Amino acid sequence: MKNKIYKNKLLIIFSFLTLASCSEYIELENQNQIAQDGFYRDEASLNLGLTGAYSTLRNPIAYEWMLSEIRSDNTFMNLVGTTQAQNLQIYSNDIFEAPSYDSFIENYWGSTYQSIRSINGLMTGMNVTYNAASGTIDYGMLDYTIADATKKRIAGEASFMRAYHYFNLVRLYGGVFLVDKVLTSEEALKVNRASEDDIYKFVIADLKNAIANCISSTYSATAATDRGKVTTWAAKSLLAKVYLTLGQKSDALPLLSDVIANSGYSLLTGTSGYANVFASTNEMNAEMIFAVRFKAGGLGYGSSLSNLFATNTSSIASQTKLAQPAGTRGSYNNPTEEFYKSFGTSDIRRDYNIKVYKPTASSLPETWTYWAAKHNISTTVQNDSELDWPVLRYSDVLLMYCEAVGVNNATTLAYLNQVHVRAGLTALTATNVATQAAYESAVANERRWEFALENQRWFDLLRFKKTLTTVNAKAIMSNHFAEMQPFYSQYDGAYTTAQLQAKVADPKFDLLPIPNVEIVTNTTNPITQNPGY
């Protein structure tokens, strides 16, 4: 687990760019101390800053699962009797008890705003600004020469990354600090929380800018060196998800239809199709619309997830065939028994995503443990996995289309079955989704199985209250706590089912706390905390 990081005012500390090359966002020469002021003077410097912005997407991934997947019914903190402070922090978030001073919540917030600052520095260098009144991204004059299309492409890619961050922030924390330019320390102290509506308006403006200006060629026509960059199709897919989150299904639908019909992205099929989506030897394939790129090789650009999720017990690794990456292994983010059993027995996604450890050949199911396998890979250096982090996949677009239409018809059933049958399951029929509740359950379940351990389940559950209204997040989590009560009874406090289920009604269920450091260090501008903290 990464060392505990203490931060002062998180909006102002990131005064450098992390720079990288285009294909994997890696620059082998250390240029981490390049100042932003006066740096952007031509196309080469702008492209260098853009790859630096891509590179900063990596850091939040180490913490995102602690704030999303583990809060859902998919995974839990399976470390009974732990006394380590960092473990107890994850455990507290698992049961909606996170304190406002949780260092991991602060780390996610801080690393995200650090990335936003590098993006804002790039935007400032191009004189690209956000017009809050009109809800648009505006382009000003420059005192250096660059092709207009090139400038707008770079700004479009940066807009997507900024929108991606703010979309995550607003879903996790509610109204946050809307920062659209590089701030001085004095300016930062005057920034207060924006409303959720204002954050979403900003996100939509950025994504519309990305749609208008990013690479728009089909997947097959996109040069290999450009795969991994933001495209119009990625921006349309993310904007559709934003609209679904806002309950604007009619706005999401044409975007999704366009991606399906015209982007050239597709599902990887065959018995190994699902596994091939995530293979380190098949990166940025036809199903991966956008991913955060990682690069192994001891360069400092690898992913830590394989280490965080891998078992630290050799007998478990031996039986399950889970890789044991070099260095410390965390045994975090274990799938729940209920999640494992929710899969059909012939669903190839179950055994790809989850491995089962049985202490003895005749051991009872109550003694079995379940382990995250999707992000598991061998490494020779600690925290150096090659595996990219999927943000948007083509299967996500198909299932969002089903969600946006909201009813069973020939098209939605066909799209649902593309994903369902690829997993090795028998095609659903109209009889299987004959009622509205059955249809909505089928879509929700397919998303749960398809995006296992990709940090989508928690956001899905919260969104369904506006799109698939028969799928009730609080009822699902209440049932989750009832099933998990025997486990939680082992901790100090020995929670009863009633005590666990009461947490679903707590305000902490809906939002994480604004990090306490943001509140206590600002003596100029009082910052309001979220309810319950």
TrEMBL record:
CDD domains (UniProt xref): SusD
Keywords, in A-Z order: Cell outer membrane, Membrane, Signal
PROSITE patterns: PROKAR_LIPOPROTEIN
Domain of life the protein comes from: Bacteria
Domain annotation SusD-like N-terminal: ranges: 28-244
Span of domain RagB/SusD: 351-533
Secretion signal span: 1-20
Annotated compartments: Cell outer membrane
InterPro entries: SusD-like_N (IPR033985), SusD_RagB_dom (IPR012944), TPR-like_helical_dom_sf (IPR011990)
UniProt keyword Signal, yes or no: yes
Pfam families reported in the protein's UniProt record: SusD-like_3 (PF14322), SusD_RagB (PF07980)
Family assignment from sequence similarity: Belongs to the SusD family.
The protein's name in its UniProt record: RagB/SusD family nutrient uptake outer membrane protein
Organism: Flavobacterium frigidarium
